Amino acid sequence: MKTIVHLSDLHFGRADPAMAAILAKTVRDMKPDLVVISGDLTQRARKDEFKAARAFMDELPAPRFAVPGNHDIPAHYEPWHHYVLPFRRWHRFIGPELEPSFADAEISVVGVNTAHPWTIKGGQVTPLQAMRIQKEFNAAKPHALKVLVAHHPFDIPPNHPHDLIVGGEMLFKTLVEPGVDVILSGHVHEHHVGHSAERYRAAHRSALLVHAGTAISDRLRREANSFNVLSAGDGRVTVTPHLWDYDDRAYVAVEPQAFIRGAAGWERSPS
Ligand SMILES: [Fe+2]
Ligand SMILES: [Fe+2]
C-alpha cells in the first residue's frame, strides 16, 4: 500500500505561515511515500514568495516534487520575466525540472507543466508533452499505479466558471494505451473527485480526476483550505480530503472515496 499526499495552490504571498507550519508537520507525521504539489506555489512569482515556498518544501518529507501553476510565472508587468525567462525563478528556488517524476515498483508519478506564458490563466498540454508522458508511463512497471500531476484540471467541479485545459482531450487519447489511472490537479481551489468516463470517452479505460483545494492560502472559493491523501494498492485507490478546521486549527479527514479497478475502469466501492 502506497500513500501519496497531494498539496496544491499554496500561493505564498497570500499564505498563512502558521497554517503552513501545521501542514508541514501534519504531512511529516503521515510518513507518506511521496508528496506532490500541483502548482501555484506562489501568488505573483516574486523572489520572496519563491523563497518561502522553498523553505516550506524543505520541511516536507522526501521524496517530494512540484509542477508549476499559472501563478508561478511572473506577471505581464514584468515582460522580460513573463515572456523570455518565465521559469527562471522557479529554477533558482524550486529546482531544475518543470516536469519531474517518480517511479518505483508500485507507482509511476509523472509531472506535466500546463502553465505557459502565452496562456493567461488557463492551461495547455502540447502533443510533444503528451508523447513524453506516454513514454514515461509505458516504461512503468507492469502493475504500477500511473499518476499524472498537472496544475490545470482535466475536469471542473459542477457550476464552476473555469475553462477546461487546452489539449486535454488529445492528452487523454494518448494516455489510453499506457492506461493512466489518476490525474491530480489544482487551480480551482476546491477539492473534488471525478471520473474521466464522464468527461472523456475512452473504451475500457478511465482515470480518476482528483482536485485539491488551496492548502494554506486565503484565496478561498467555496470551501475551507484542504489537501488530499491517496492510498493505493491491490487495484484500489482511496482519496481522503483533509479540510482545515477553524476551531481546532488542524486538518481533519472527511469522507474518503474508494475506487476499485474493474474491467471498464475505476468503479466506486464502499470505503
Ligand atoms: Fe491557484
Ligand atoms: Fe492556478
Describe the structure.
With 271 residues, the protein is an alpha/beta fold. The chain has 7 helices and 14 strands. The chain has helices at residues 17-30, 47-58, 79-84, 88-93, 127-138, 168-176, 196-199, and strands spanning 2-7, 34-38, 64-67, 101-103, 107-112, 145-150, 182-185, 192-195, 208-211, 226-233, 236-245, 250-253, 257-262, 265-269. Strands 1, 2, 3, 10, 11, 12, 13 and 14 form an 8-stranded mixed β-sheet that branches. A 6-stranded mixed β-sheet has the order 4-5-6-7-9-8. Strand 10 (226-233) and strand 11 (236-245) form a beta hairpin. Helix 5 (127-138) runs parallel beside helix 6 (168-176). The longest helix has 14 residues, at 17-30. It is globular and about 50 Å long. The protein starts with a strand and ends with a strand. The mean pLDDT is 91. Bound molecules: fe (ii) ion (2 copies). One fe (ii) ion (FE2) binds at residues 9, 11, 40, 69, 71, 187, 189.
Task: Quickly describe the structure.
With 271 residues, the protein is an alpha/beta fold. It has helices spanning 17-30, 47-58, 79-84, 88-93, 127-138, 168-176, 196-199, and strands spanning 2-7, 34-38, 64-67, 101-103, 107-112, 145-150, 182-185, 192-195, 208-211, 226-233, 236-245, 250-253, 257-262, 265-269.
